[in-house]
């Protein structure tokens, strides 16, 4: 019955891949995992053969002491002499020791002789409890905050990492891995999602904060420092150059605005005069830093900066203008195009080994490695950070980590788990049977000898 059951299990395992192939990728993945849990590797098979050899040796030794006991008993009854009693007592105790240890070893993995004796077949019956106990043991003794902190402190991660990172080839390797991760992250991200997030963040930040007072403070500082004068100089130069090149247009505009009843030559004279005065005004403003118009512009900008900070009506107008600008499609398109350009630039820099980005990252890694390797203060800061992060992880997610052990053990097949464990430790357990036979024989011999001595 037992062999038939194993054959049925093996047949079911052989048929699972075909069923999983029809069921889909998830089923095939589950089947692969299940087959890995219910199969033996070549190394496991070799260990199982070693266990069988040791079982044969232990059983052979038991048969040997049984034969010795039978012969010694026969010799004692035949009057062979006192020695036969000693040999029979030693052999008898050896049999008892061998049988007792056989029972103990067998009870770990199965019911001895197939009899449902209580507290036998411990591993298959207590597999889940053993998994829970193992998880608790690992959690209490390996995942406690103090143990993790002490172990990491003894390792000296900062110094070791710094020494490793200070090597140029290692810095190159880390830089390449970071570049690959960056490219992967930017490839996975969808442009539309990033654009929506960036646009929403900019809009929310702009709506949450009034921009008129900061603009007023900035303009006030620019005017006070004279930073606007270069802009005024540029405007004056460009205005002068434009007037020189477009004199006909200026005079035509002036003549076009004249009344219809005035003579044409009067309109022309007026246009020429207006053009000359306008050109003279712009030229003087361009060439004279102390021109009155420049002073008037300074006062206008200063007053406007003050209004941006204190005038309610001006601030309200700026806020309305801000809302209108942010709501325009052109602004959102600008955000989208900016993100596309930035992403393309970063991807290109990450792919180019000689880009400024990768060179700077490599230099930063080498510098960081040198500081971590040679500066105790930096080492202490990095070690404390690593220790704190590790302690936070193990204390926060200890249950999830230990559940990996308990859930994995709970998912194992009880019969296969028993055979797997027996393959790994069964050979040493058979030595217990052999030692039990030998120790039992010696103990029996000693007890018999002491009894005879006291009896004599």
UniProtKB/TrEMBL annotation:
InterPro entries: DUF445. Keywords: Membrane, Transmembrane, Transmembrane helix. Residues 27-41 have a biased composition (Polar residues). The keyword Transcription does not apply. Residues 13-48 are annotated as: Disordered. The chain crosses the membrane at residues 57-75. It comes from the Bacteria. This is DUF445 domain-containing protein.
């Amino acid at each position: 019955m037992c062999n038939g059951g194993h054959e049925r299990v093996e047949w079911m395992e052989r048929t699972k891949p075909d069923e999983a192939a029809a069921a889909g990728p998830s089923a095939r993945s589950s089947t692969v995992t299940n087959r890995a849990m219910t199969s033996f590797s070549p190394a496991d098979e070799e260990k199982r053969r070693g266990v069988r050899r040791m079982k044969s040796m232990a059983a052979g030794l038991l048969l040997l002491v049984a034969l010795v006991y039978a012969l010694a008993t026969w010799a004692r009854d035949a009057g062979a002499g006192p020695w036969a009693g000693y040999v029979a007592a030693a052999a008898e105790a050896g049999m008892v020791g061998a049988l007792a240890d056989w029972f103990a070893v067998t009870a770990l993995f199965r019911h001895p002789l197939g009899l449902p004796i209580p507290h036998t077949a411990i591993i298959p019956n207590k597999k889940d409890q053993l998994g829970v106990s193992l998880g608790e043991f690992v959690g209490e003794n390996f995942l406690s905050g103090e143990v993790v902190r002490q172990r990491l402190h003894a390792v000296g991660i900062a110094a070791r990492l710094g020494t490793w990172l200070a090597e140029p080839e290692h810095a190159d390797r880390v830089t390449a891995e970071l570049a690959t991760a960056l490219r992967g992250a930017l490839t996975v991200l969808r442009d539309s999602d990033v654009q929506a997030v960036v646009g929403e963040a900019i809009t929310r930040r702009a709506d949450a904060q009034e921009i008129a007072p900061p603009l007023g403070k900035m303009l006030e500082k620019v005017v006070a420092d004279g930073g606007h004068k270069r802009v005024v100089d540029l405007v004056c130069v460009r205005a002068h150059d434009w007037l020189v090149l477009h004199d006909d247009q200026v005079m035509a505009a002036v003549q076009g605005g004249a009344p219809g009843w005035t003579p044409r030559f009067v309109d022309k004279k007026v246009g020429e005069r207006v053009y000359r005065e306008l050109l003279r005004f712009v030229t003087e403003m361009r060439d004279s830093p102390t021109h009155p118009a420049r002073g008037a512009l300074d006062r206008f900008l200063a007053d406007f900066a003050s209004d941006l900070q204190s005038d309610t009506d001006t601030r309200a107008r700026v806020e309305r203008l801000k809302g209108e600008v942010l709501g325009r499609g052109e602004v959102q398109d600008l955000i989208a195009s900016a993100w596309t350009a930035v992403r393309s630039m970063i991807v290109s820099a990450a792919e180019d080994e000689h880009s400024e980005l990768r060179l700077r990252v490599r230099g930063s890694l080498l510098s960081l490695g040198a500081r971590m390797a040679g500066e105790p203060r930096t080492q202490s800061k990095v070690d404390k950070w690593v220790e704190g992060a590790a302690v936070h992880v193990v204390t926060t997610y200890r249950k999830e980590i230990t559940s990996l052990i308990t859930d994995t053990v709970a998912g194992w097949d009880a019969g296969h788990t028993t055979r797997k464990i027996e393959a790994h430790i069964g050979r040493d357990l058979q030595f217990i049977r052999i030692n039990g036979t030998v120790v039992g024989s010696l103990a029996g011999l000693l007890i018999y000898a002491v009894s005879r001595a006291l009896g004599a």
